[in-house]
Fold these 2 entries.
Entry 1:
Amino acid sequence: MKTQDVRIYTAQRLHWLWALPDNQRRAELAKLRRGVGRAPGDLPELWGSFLRGMPESFQGGKNGPSHAEWAVYLALTLYAVHQQGNDQPMNRPGNTLGRAVRQLAERNTPAGQDWTEASVLRRFNALATAEEITEISHHLRGMIQLLSAAKNGGIPLDYPQLAADLYELQCTDPRYAQIPANVRLRWGQDLYRDSKPAPEENEKEN
């Protein structure tokens, strides 16, 4: 399944980045940041960063970048934005976009107020309703910048999963029309999922 392949390939590229010596990694991340707001392939200096080892089945043709190329490219360039200024890795398996936004909303909400009133949720809603990949990229960039600059340190994100989500959001095949809706539903589920055990669960554990 190509969604899983996109997730695995993105994880491999992130692993490659973190295996580089510090100076090389910083230079590579700076180079990737220059690709934000551009289309895959626009900057020849980035070709190796996201195309090295990419399966041929991912590659687009005369119609421009494929859905897989867009997904991987956005994940890697936005990761570079997220990592800037943060000493700890900003890629964390399992911390999906919905969960990360929930953490951001809770951090930004004053004591005694409901996190669901946080202004960041309006931005998240704009991202979740965007349909075209460049529009998604625009809203996602703003969200990543907020996660990177969060109080008490940046909030990490599962970037291989984000790449998989971005790939599925581009599904335009009418036979699989429900796929993008399912991605958005997962974001909502993760946003509202209570990370704390219910009281009865605590009692059972005790």
Entry 2:
Amino acid sequence: MGTIRALVLCCTLKPSPAPSSAELLGREVLAALSDHDVDGEVIRVVDHNVRFGVSTDEGDGDGWPAIRAKLMDAQILVVATPIWLGQPSSVCKMVLERLDAELSETDDEGRLRTYGKVAAVAVVGNEDGAHHVTAEVLQALNDVGFTAPAAASTYWVGEAMGGTDYRDAGPKPETTGRATRSLAANAAHLAHLLRVRPYPAV
């Protein structure tokens, strides 16, 4: 069936080389995907000069077009975001706003170019809100043409108002590991199916 490509967009607020729990969980998802003939890369969005906007190219050195090119080459998109005030990070929201432009991008048969691409979410935080963040991100991605598999998210949340990050949490909970493995298996399975049987023209 051939190798499937994945792109993990890490939406931490911290530029490299600062450690990021969101990036760590995103890399764990990518590692789990590699067990299912999927390869890919992680991009930390704040390391690129991504402009605010809702077009495919905001000009003036905008870093989004290069990221978008990699997204178009991938069959799986994983959005990895921390929770801030119960919400996806501002970087995550910017990414979703940039993806709004895909509603105007179609192939030769009138389908959105994102049709056939699979979406998943990885969430970390020291507060409640993982389900809310997952719901916001998956709904937005579905609105712009992505397909969510069963069990399309994995997350870790620490003690409410605590100070321990996922990267410092010691042995990782098996619940998160199991969710990560399920996400990877189902996302890869769906991506392989959609490659063989794409959505019909409209």
